[in-house]
Amino acid sequence: MSNNNQKHCPPTLPMWLLNLLLPDSVKDDITGDLTEEYSRSTDTLLNKNKWFWSQTISTCWRFTMTKQNLASLGLAIISILTLGIIMHAILFLSVADDPASFHNAYWTDGNFHQFFFDAPLWQFISENNLSRLSFDMFIHLPSMAWLAIALCGFIVLKKQLHLSFTYQLILAASLLMLPYIGGVTYFRLTDVALNQAGPILALMLISAFYLILPFTHLLLKELKSVDL
Known about the structure:
Layout: H1 2-7, H2 12-21, H3 24-40, H4 45-64, H5 67-95, H6 119-126, H7 141-161, H8 165-189, H9 198-223
Helix pairs in contact: 2-4, 5-9, 7-8, 7-9, 8-9
């Protein structure tokens, strides 16, 4: 009798996936229907299990690969990749000891974006220098001040103006990029010596490093309620 009951129990792993991934509003109905159909089937156990797995995969895919989830995944991936590149750029500026790396004009002429496409940074990343990270490389009081101002400004404007997700995304990107744009503008309007460029570059990079994760978190929360 125990063997007979065993045949009428769906596989454990796909049941776990259904309970984990399906929305609460439909979870009980779907798992109940699939379990009932599985139990009523007179097919072989192997075929029943194959059918249950295929139904589980197609059902979970339908409910998890929504536009919101795909947009959330894309936003998260972009944020993590950007965070990683900025972290390596900060580390490069902190530990690079090859004078040739700082001979390029883009350090002080307002074309700093060229640094992110230049060979030294990507060679530095490929060499896996993360072991050289130090906590104090990321402590920067002006960037901390901008973090507080930007986050408070974002939250206030979002509530006061009832901004849609699109406008929240634009506002977050603008606040994140503002120190960078300000630094680029300053370099283009002012003749800055290389040995004086460090504090400006630090504000341009570290403020963005601070803001990426908080803004991503706020936008991902908002994205859950957006009808795409």
